[in-house]
Specification:
about 500 residues; Arc Repressor Mutant, subunit A; 21 helices; extended
């Protein structure tokens, strides 16, 4: 098959090995226009196209700040080198990011709320040039793998992988170019459409080949004047990239399946809630710090309160239990729900006339007005569950939670006493992480206080729990930064293990 003009121009390129972008520039065409001719030449053994993966390290906004000011832990060491300082007096960034890192390396010691530098911290300060964030691009691109992984985890840098192609003309391709007539070198062209009624002769041997049959070629019958391009049966197929569900979606389905197998029914509720269902119905006083703007997203407009009987019961519960004058206007404020326990409150009230024991669960988004970092998000998933049964005991709660986490793959589980505003007694659930050899907290649980369940449904006790959805996935796959799930990194999603 004769060479097309563009193919011949490729084979005449000098030097015989060069980058794809350089070849495209020399031919004055775009790199994308070069890919198809190269594929055909590669099938004939005239060229070799080599693909290399190149990793580029780019700074995030936090990384830019670290480059200008230094890492927060190193800035903290410099401050403490002068004199110990109260933790409360530290800059928020030093307190949130610098202090935990410095404590993990045993560079600082905290006693009576005051941070002091240790001998290891003084030694680290002497090595500041080595331990601080690199200031030059060359030093950044040559970071050791473990140091680079740390900076990626801390969202200081992002690593982008791109493909670079090198085109090499083989001896066979060079020989084919030398044998081709020089008149073949020219611009790529399409033949003029045949006139109506014209007799189409056989295609000339040097006519450009036809690949895809376009609408224009079919209408003009121009394909009859040109040889059809050979179909490359031996051409390598592209990588198969089937559709995959996001790890969070897969875990949601797994958690849903476990609860359904345990006999639970799924409950749902709105994302935009009234303060009544989100706070008041859960016996949370109207001056509680969790209602501050710093913790809760408030929405414009108000929300309708439920039936008067429930509102009156909640009002009496608050005024008797907390000793203040309850305000209906405050309860009518609109918020983005801060927990899915609001769904439990709605469900208990809706099923108040049902005397049968019931078990419910929900998996939904909740919202907190707080700064995002490696372990906090402004929105995240919460797994909620309740058991409405007057014969329930604290032992039933522990057994249910242990059974759930065992089915989720965590074998070593323990419970620690805790405090939550609307449950008593309350506990935190911890599971043992073998890779870290440490106990990790996954959620809270307890028995709804009578001030919560009696106004809502007239039943006591009601078992309840609220668990994290993202955290078990982070533990199972050793993911340090919760933001990893929501960065839309297709490479990470494709490589994430399905099981």
């Amino acid at each position: 098959m004769p060479l097309e003009p563009l193919q011949l121009r490729i084979l005449l390129l000098e030097p015989r090995a060069l980058a794809l972008e350089s070849a495209a520039s020399a031919l004055k065409i775009s790199p994308d226009s070069l890919r198809r001719p190269l594929e055909l030449l590669s099938q004939d053994g005239y060229v070799e196209v080599k693909k290399d993966e190149v990793s580029l390290v780019a700074l995030t906004d936090e990384g830019e700040r670290a480059r200008e000011e230094g890492l927060p832990e190193m800035r903290l060491l410099a401050i403490l080198a002068a004199a110990p300082a109260p933790v409360s007096s530290l800059d928020p960034s030093l307190k949130s990011f610098g202090l935990p890192t410095a404590k993990r390396h045993a560079w600082v010691f905290i006693s009576n709320g005051e941070a002091s530098l240790t001998d290891a911290g003084r030694a680290a300060l002497d090595r500041r040039g080595e331990l601080d964030f690199p200031t030059g691009d060359a030093a950044l691109s040559s970071l050791p793998p473990e140091r680079l992984a740390e900076f990626v985890r801390r969202n200081l840098v992002r690593v982008k992988t791109s493909a670079r192609f090198t085109v090499s003309i083989t001896d066979a391709g060079h020989a084919a170019a030398q044998e081709a007539p020089l008149s073949s070198v020219g611009a790529v062209h399409s033949p003029a459409p045949a006139a109506a009624g014209a007799v189409l002769s056989s295609p000339p041997s040097d006519a450009p080949t036809v690949g895809p049959l376009t609408r224009e070629l079919l209408l003009s019958k121009g394909w009859k004047n040109r040889p059809l391009r050979r179909y490359g049966l031996s051409a390598p197929a592209g990588a198969k990239l089937p559709a995959r569900r996001h790890p969070i979606c897969r875990l949601r389905e797994r958690v849903r399946t476990i609860f359904v197998e345990m006999g639970f029914e799924e409950m749902e509720g709105p994302l935009a809630e009234s303060a009544f269902w989100n706070f008041d119905a859960l016996f949370q006083p109207q001056d509680h710090p969790a209602r501050d703007l710093a913790d809760t997203f408030y929405l414009p407009g108000g929300s309708r309160l439920p039936a008067h009987e429930l509102v009156d019961a909640v009002r009496k519960s608050h005024e008797k239990g907390w000793g203040y004058s309850w305000d209906a206007a405050t309860a009518g404020q609109s918020v983005l729900r801060t927990h899915t326990t609001a769904v439990s409150a709605r469900t208990l009230h809706a099923r108040r006339a049902d005397p049968a024991p019931r078990k419910f669960f929900s998996i939904g988004k909740v919202f907190r007005n707080e700064a995002t970092d490696y372990k906090h998000l402004a929105e995240f998933f919460q797994v909620e569950g309740i058991v409405s049964w007057e014969g329930a005991t604290f032992g039933h709660l522990l057994g249910t939670l242990k059974s759930f986490y065992s089915k989720l793959g965590f074998e070593k589980i323990r419970f620690r006493p805790s405090f939550f505003p609307y449950t008593e007694p309350s506990l935190e659930i911890e599971v043992f992480h073998p890779a870290r050899q440490a106990w990790m907290e996954l959620g809270g649980a307890g028995i709804f206080r009578p001030e919560v369940s009696l106004p809502l449904c007239g039943k006591y006790p009601v078992l309840a729990w609220g668990l994290s959805l993202e955290r078990p996935l982070m533990l199972a796959h050793q993911i340090e930064d919760i933001r990893t799930f929501y960065r839309n990194d297709l490479g990470w999603l494709r490589n994430f293990p399905i099981e």
